[in-house]
Amino acid sequence: MCGIVGLHLRNPALHPRLGELLTGMLCEMEDRGADSAGVAVYGDPTWSPAGHATVSILETLRTAEEVAQAIEAVLAGATVIDAGTTYVVHAPVDAGALVAAVREAVPEGLIAGFGEDLAVLKGVGHPRELAARFGLAGAQGWQGIGHTRMATESAVTPAGSHPYAVGPDQCLVHNGSFANHATIRRGLIARGMVFDSENDTEVGARFVAQAILDGQDVATALGHLCEEFDGFYTLLVSDRDSFAVVRDAIACKPAIIAETDDWVAMASEYRALVGLPGIEGARLFEPEPERIYAWTR
């Protein structure tokens, strides 16, 4: 059992409230999983300023100052922000150059997310405590997703927590389990994929990332995932411009979607949505099995 939340803001006037609203949604899901938690935020001007690439780093014992010094020796002009459990690095270069610099400077670190607009923050611990350490309530932007985890099939580690962000500006969160993930993992490894964890969700994330790399859009990639993966799941997948939800063929895992002119939101349970502005007038519905729901900025 895990909890998923997602918020896609259509009204720019709400962008300054993204972190506040996402925090409330995430914390309402804390009893669905208190092992670990994480969020992905699109468009925060501090974590991912315009004209900069951003990389999120986990699992290094170095201080933020030590990380900054190491990266500066490889790439001038980078900024390192200590976001509690995660270091968020941004620089006025393209994402590929920043990822390469981080890997050279901090080889022991785990890259938890990267792109032009994306900051990923995650860690082990109680969702409410982690949200406070992230400073999530002060974040801004146009889109955010979050996840609270109750581990069932792999270790409780930062690498095993969600979101999984393995493609540029792409994220995936998952409630459920993939029965045939080991088989699909072997096929992806044969194509050259490298995995950071034993989590079945990472297999889904890398499958979608590879499909997008092959030229598919998010909705098409999710359609192919439904064809290839067995199990029970609700998935939320995002990139910098879109937000998509799909459930398995029998819709075993709970999910609800709410939509207004100002925003689209998704959560594992309705109580995560009650604090959103205008919820009383929202169109509410439960996503149908294997139907892909997608919204584009």
Tell me the distance between the termini.
Answer: 30 Å
Please report the first level of CATH classification, the CATH class of the largest domain: Alpha Beta
**Share of β-strand residues:** 25-35%
Low-confidence runs of at least 5 consecutive residues: none
CATH topology call of the largest domain: Glutamine Phosphoribosylpyrophosphate, subunit 1, domain 1
Characterise the protein shown here.
- This protein is α+β, with helices and mostly antiparallel strands.
- It folds into two domains: 3-44 and 122-296, 4-Layer Sandwich (Glutamine Phosphoribosylpyrophosphate, subunit 1, domain 1); 49-116, Alpha-Beta Plaits.
- The chain contains seven helices and 15 strands.
- The chain has helices at 18-28, 64-72, 95-105, 127-134, 181-190, 200-213, 218-228, and strands spanning 3-9, 36-42, 53-58, 79-82, 87-91, 110-115, 118-124, 143-149, 171-178, 231-238, 242-247, 256-259, 263-267, 283-285, 293-296.
- The strands form three sheets. Strands 7-2-8-1-13-12-14 form a seven-stranded antiparallel β-sheet, with helices on one face. Strands 4-5-3-6 form a four-stranded antiparallel β-sheet, with helices on one face. A four-stranded antiparallel β-sheet has the order 9-10-11-15.
- It is globular and about 50 Å long.
- The two termini are 30 Å apart.
- The mean pLDDT is 95.
